[in-house]
Structures
1.
Amino acid sequence: MSKKGYYGRWGGKFIPEVLHQTFEELEKAYQAARNDESFWQEYLELMSTYSCRPTPLTHAENLSKHFGGAQIYIKREDLNHTGAHKANNVMGQGLLVKRMGKTRVIAETGAGQHGVATATMAAKFGFECTIYMGEEDVMRQRPNVFWMEKMGATVVPVQDGSKTLKDAINEAFRDWVSNMDTTHYVFGTACGPSPFPEMVSWFQSIIGGEAAEQIVTQHGSLPKRIYACVGGGSNAMGIFGRFLKEDQTDLVGVEAGGYGLETGKHAARLCGVDASPGVAQGYKTMFLQNDDGQMRHTHSVSAGLDYVGVSPILSDLNDQGLVRFEAATDDEVMEALDLTMKKEGIIPALESAHAFVQAFKEAPTMDTKDAIIINMSGRGDKDIFTIANAFDDPSWKEFIIERGKTYSSS
Ligand SMILES: Cc1ncc(COP(=O)(O)O)c(C=O)c1O
């Protein structure tokens, strides 16, 4: 970080005057936590007793044999409580909220994983909780909405704009401005105004720390490459951070290629040609926007990658050539998902499956002695409706129709 809150030419803190004091308070609490070893110990204790950490590193032997190249290892963030890496960030911020003495939390969510994780944390710590979610994402991720509400959260469907993640973020900021005395905004990814990009990456760094130890124990050396999907960038920063200093490990971020980069219907900010520098939602990064600075509609089969901006830290690592960015299309994602389920009995989230696509393209070109790690950011259970639709599964369709009839007649 060059200047406070900046990463090269990206980042910053572009916030309304009224939020300045709240951000100062947050910055203070965050810095105090970073300088207090007992805070990290408390965090590790919480994550090991509440969220199944350390998550395993699985050697995908069948996939490795299938591709005949590098040994493929999968970092199993799906086995975190609530089924994704989002819990790492949320529980950490929950501990900070307790320190700051606030009583209410709000959050935005796309795939619903961050919303569910926040609702879980709020229930555990006794906070009031409101989750903002684009209406389109409410439809795509209905099971997660159900669980958030059952855990006591209020879910507000956002009807503005493209009714996806960026619109939910705008709405959450509006709420925060009106309720900052009691409320903390649990930002879900490594974006937004400083200190969120760095703070979220810090909590997620638990992934990379574990993975480095595990791969050396299990494989005998550090990995040749690491693959992570990139929405806002938090799971990628979580696993990449520890390996930035390791010359022998290449880092590959995989963005949503949607219908294909040439169609314009995607969410590729760093590997495409459509994004440009901009300031929005409190920070400066590469955004998918038109010439007037209006945010464009993005497309991805995965709600969690369907976002106009990207972590300013990743934009900087891209500038420095320290992370390579690629894109996976919706169709490639379904193929990778199918293969992973059949070969390993593992169901990646649609978001995570983007990382699998790129790893599967590159593994066959590598030596069988080399190891690669795919960061499996979450599990695919939440995506059952989208996946069943994509596979056009007739018995599932029949089940849904019958289930609908049972509900309407009872
Ligand atoms: C399972 C999963 N993976 C990845 C993401 C993308 O977020 P990030 O890039 O912050 O890891 C999401 C976002 O909702 C998600 O639910």
2.
Amino acid sequence: MSTTPPTGPGAVTAPPLLIYVNVPFCNSKCHFCDWVTEVPLADLRLTPETSLRQRYIKALVEQIETHAPTLNSRGYRPRIMYWGGGTASILTLAEIEAVTGALHRRFDLGDLVEATIEGSPESMDPEKLRLFRAAGFNRISIGVQSFDDTRLRRIGRVHNAEQAERAVLAAAESGFENINIDLIVGFPGQEVDEVERMIRHAVTLPVNHFSVYPYRPTNGTVMRKQVRRGTSEIDVDEQLRSYVHARDLLARHGFDEYATAYFGAPRCESDEVYYKLTMDWIGFGSGANSLIGGRFLLNERGALHRFSAAPQRFDSDTPAYSPHLVLHFLAQALTTVDGMDARTFQLRTGRSLRAACEEPAVRRMLEQVNRRGRLIVDKRGIRLHRDDMASAYITMNSVDLYAATEQNAG
Ligand SMILES: C[S@@+](CC[C@H](N)C(=O)[O-])C[C@H]1O[C@@H](n2cnc3c(N)ncnc32)[C@H](O)[C@@H]1O
Ligand code: SF4
């Protein structure tokens, strides 16, 4: 089998592509959420009638129309699609049709194996769910976070547990066979008992994949400020106990962990791409990034005005082997059982994994990881011992280690 991806128009095998669409709108800014910290609240909560949101949707269409011809001429064939954010399910029927219309006009989507739409419970109803199915989505990811109403209020959610459960059931009734729910463990003050109740409830639902994220105390969030002010506290040991308890309980119900936070089957193909660089991807929208032909292209998060005014250009274009990117890629890969495969890394970035790991900032990060778990470096690539993945992830998040090493690198 050839290790070189065909890139020219005459290529025999088309390189697969992931298409990501970013929707930086939500009904609220949740206290824990580190996905939209850079989006001003007024922009995050824009309604479909507002001119900036309308311009954003037009800009998405324009960006797709600009870049699709080049990608097609380089032989790329979309295999996976993911609409996230923010809250992709917040879009109206007309907005979804505008963007899917552009994608269908400009790409051949006949090879798509997985098309996921991500959303929050209060923004889904049976009509919308049917529309998602009709638009070609075959997987849905629902942000549930918790089944405890007190917890949901405390973390700033605008839905309650019953609405979350109704959204999951309605998704199943609309014909979704691949349903993921997002849950979080390890909030300040959360004990293992609460996690146990949450998982026991979760496994009664028609869900085949769970994302159980250990809470990350990320800068710029309301909850992080509370931790700083001392009004709440992170207990790393309790976080780990909670995660391990959730993992064991899920395993007993047949949902195996294939990466830190990810359980069940089939695996989420789009996460496989981001975490293990298994194919190139194009990200449309403000806050989206792309990895195309060894270049990392980025549109800054939160810059909706900039993006809507000139969607054809990216805010930055960097070689994928740049040390700050390698740090990010490896940090993600080390949360997976397989880790980073050396040949795949070389294929995506154009540099050998061995050389990339020799960069001082990358070496420093790997040394720190190695103090928290058994790092395996061999011909195949680099990965953490399976039993150490979660503890390394949780302890590193809680001391902001990745953030610190990124600053050093910068
Ligand atoms: C981009 S959000 C989209 C979900 C959707 N907007 C919703 O709220 O239901 C993806 C997921 O990231 C997780 N997440 C966000 N911030 C987090 C944090 N600080 N720690 C752990 N998980 C977090 C949440 O579980 C969230 O559902
Ligand atoms: S968790 Fe979802 S709804 Fe809440 S702020 Fe983040 S992206 Fe928006």
3.
Amino acid sequence: MYEDLYLVIPYEFFYYLFIFFLLGLVFGSFATALIHRIPLGKSWGVSGTHDVNARRSSCPQCKHQLGVKDLIPLFSWVFQGGKCRYCKVSIPIIYPLTELSVASIVSLVYILCGMELATILIMVSVPFLVALTAIDLKFKILPNQLVFIVGGIGALYVGYVFFVGGADIRDQIPFLSDHLLGMLIFPLLLWGIGKLVTFLLKKEALGFGDVKLYAVCGLWVGLAALPQMMILSGVFGVTMGWLWRMVKKDTVFPFGPAIVLALLTLVIGQNMNGEILSLIG
Ligand SMILES: [Zn+2]
């Protein structure tokens, strides 16, 4: 019985799963840097500042600059017992949890969608999507730079499928127009719904960041997936808003996390069913 199982799942699968999990931890540590730097207006990339010290990570408590030993995702936290090596102050569990959740999503993308350039692009967008979620929960904003980066990766993803998808590029024009129309119609519809809800409830229902993120979603999933996107983000939004109210006693729940979850679910679903992968062949 175990031999059969061994035949069905080749060991390469577990080998790559391990590699993608480690890659996901590195992405997770990058997401943590985004979450803590972007709301403060600090640089997180290679450009922006020539001052190396401003880019280096340091302990928020004692300001001691962190070395390689302190920056290994997840493992540093575990082996240091969740404390800073220098001042022994506890490092919040949200750091390793963020790393673990990014690594889990990246691994899930590998398990469900396999190893294709299109799915690698989904993985690359995960740290930015997780950072959007965390920053929206904490500050109720969706930073433009993160929304644009996820849109840029979406453009690469759509462009890749368009150019590589068919023997004849003309066969791919419906695919391309569906995704470009999605980018236009998704935000218009959400903006309209937001205006209507604001009118009915007489209070601001949606931020413009949500509308921009919806444009990015339309580019990723295409106009044909509009009903699914509406239903999923609506159901996730209501569920998460209810949980938020129970746990945080806060009546204003940001919509961004629900949009991100709906986007990931749909993009993974489209690649899992082979809709996109069959186009690539
Ligand atoms: Zn410290």
